[in-house]
Specification:
CATH architecture of the largest domain: 3-Layer(aba) Sandwich
Helix content: 25-40%
CATH class of the largest domain: Alpha Beta
Shape: elongated
Structural class: alpha/beta
Distance between the termini: 26 Å
Length: 368
């Protein structure tokens, strides 16, 4: 049985993306006094799908003021109403995104510390740089009572900023629960050809044209049935490119929830050639090996040599090489798929992520 945090928990997000809602719902169920989440709206150009309500916790509305946009190196955000929310909810512990660009966060930390209440930070990490804002970032991070990182890489970066190792926890980034279904079984040979699957929003940053080109260049005996599931601004453009690059590519459109299961079950390999990738863990839960582009470190612990390939972003040759290697050995591919299933069943899932947050909260509550 999962341990619980005894008390009221407050959590601040710049925005509440829909994919995070299951995590916050599960975390709320692990707090005896409940959870209140304070979040605002994204900028229109960010195209973030947000959640407007939560089942098991209270959602308070922030008024986000943006200074420049998130692509600018000098971007900042201020969330109006944060102090009023703290006074109303009066949390016994607070979780903040560990982003020094959120100008209202230092005031929230001071508010909590005046009452000798702990504040937990969480985030991707803190890449070392010598820019003008690096010192500001370090001072901001050292205000937290403990830090939760998405990955081992992020934990190392926080340690390099001067945060003691005993105050750093690793909660691998998870968006889905541990699978409740058994590991799917697949034949010992492709029948009649391997099936390569992509699932996600069709945007330029997903680099689908690179996948079309790679499939076209694979030796004839390895050429896969390529299924690209999703919708988005690049759909018609991709269909047009596929006609010249890989005419057999299939575009069944957007699928969600249970609609996705037949696609995962029919596939032999999941490929994400660009950034993002919320579907990677779900693909792994269906026993699929994966090829992903290296990004911000959130998939470092998820994708390993035992269950997939991490390729440099924008490297079309690396993508082609990984595809050829994957499809050349069916037995190895099946073993890697089994390892994918084991990783999300035992190590990286929502339940484990919640457990690490509760462990971190209990550690800072104990030391307050």
């Amino acid at each position: 049985m999962m341990t619980r945090f005894e008390g009221r928990l407050g959590l601040v997000q710049r925005v509440l993306p829909a994919y995070r809602a299951p995590f916050f719902e599960a975390l709320a169920e692990s707090c005896s006094g409940g959870l209140s989440l304070f979040a605002g709206q994204p900028l229109p150009q960010e195209s973030i799908v947000v959640t407007s309500a939560l089942r098991t916790s209270h959602l308070a509305r922030a008024s986000n003021l943006y200074f420049l946009n998130p692509q600018s190196p000098f971007y900042f955000c201020y969330q109006r109403g944060l102090t009023r929310w703290l006074e109303t909810w009066n949390p016994e512990a607070l979780i903040l995104e560990a982003n020094f660009r959120y100008l209202s966060s230092p005031g929230a930390i001071r508010w909590m510390h005046r009452s000798k209440r702990p504040v937990l930070g969480w985030g991707l990490g803190a890449p070392l740089d010598r820019g003008p804002l690096s010192a500001l970032r370090g001072r901001f991070l050292r205000q937290f009572d403990a830090m939760v990182a998405y990955s081992a890489r992020g934990a190392e970066q926080y340690a390099a900023c001067g945060i003691p190792a005993e105050k750093i926890f690793i909660a691998p980034n998870a968006v889905t629960p541990a699978p409740k279904h058994l590991m799917p079984t697949r034949p010992d040979a492709f029948s009649p050809q391997p099936v390569v699957l992509f699932v996600g929003r069709l945007q330029a940053r997903k680099r689908i044209p690179s996948l079309l080109k790679a499939c076209a260049e694979i030796p004839e005996q390895l050429k896969p049935r390529l299924v690209i599931v999703g919708d988005g601004p690049e759909l018609e453009n991709l269909r047009s490119q596929a006609q010249s690059l890989y005419p057999s590519a299939e575009f069944p459109g957007a699928k969600h929830g249970r609609e996705l299961a037949p696609y995962f079950l029919a596939a032999d390999l999941f490929v994400l050639p660009g950034t993002g990738g919320l579907a990677v863990q779900e693909a792994m839960s269906y026993g699929l090996p994966v090829i992903v582009a290296q990004g911000d470190g959130t998939q470092d612990d998820l994708v390993r040599s035992s269950n997939g390939w991490k390729i440099p972003p924008e490297d079309e040759f690396a993508l082609l090489f990984a595809l050829q290697e994957a499809l050349s050995d069916v037995a190895r591919l099946r073993a890697m798929g089994a390892e994918s299933y084991r990783i999300v069943a035992e190590e990286i899932n929502l339940e484990r992520m919640v457990a690490v947050f509760v462990e971190a909260l209990k550690s800072v509550k104990k030391g307050e």
